[in-house]
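In response to reviewer comment 3 from the previous cycle, which asked for concrete evidence that the modeling workflow produces usable outputs, we include below a single protein chain processed end to end. The sequence was submitted unchanged, and the resulting structure tokens are shown without manual editing.
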Amino acid sequence: MLPYTIRITGKVAEHLQLDHFKNIMQAKFKSLEKSNKIVEKRQVQEVIAPVAFTAALTPSRQILGQHQTIEYDKVITNLGNAYDPRHGHFTAPVKGLYLFSVTLMSSYGSNPNSLYAELVKNGVTIIPLYATNIDSDSTSATVLLTMNADDMIWVRSNTSPSQTIHGSSYDTFSGLLISKLQ
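The workflow returned the following structure tokens.
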């Protein structure tokens, strides 16, 4: 037998080339779809539960000692259960960027001392807070902090003795995870 070579030209050749190109593109598209599904699955796995809390101090006219933790006992929101009302501490469940807000009100009349407090992270003062003892003065602070997993933050009085905090839910402590960090 003699070998035969068939030469296809014109519209038929063009059509066969387009079919071949179409098959290659469909295979690449399927590969990209598969890769995209894997990436989407990873992104879904990395989504974490929300972390946010707000708590208020309910006892009225509480006298604070030196470096006494303010135990905000009325939990309004505690998504992720990272705030502990028994001790007044928030423990970061993951490394991330967090926002914290503190509002304090001094109590007038029963105590001549102004209210000096501080937001504390792992035992180190982050920011001081001050409210005079005149007419139930208020103070507040909002901070952005990078926290590692298991870092703790809380509010406490400073070294001044015998300060009176108003309570009655006028004093609040809030925080939330803005973004998880690697």
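Residues 52-180 form a domain with the Jelly Rolls fold (CATH 2.60.120.40). We consider this sufficient to address the reviewer's concern, and the full set will be provided in the supplementary archive.
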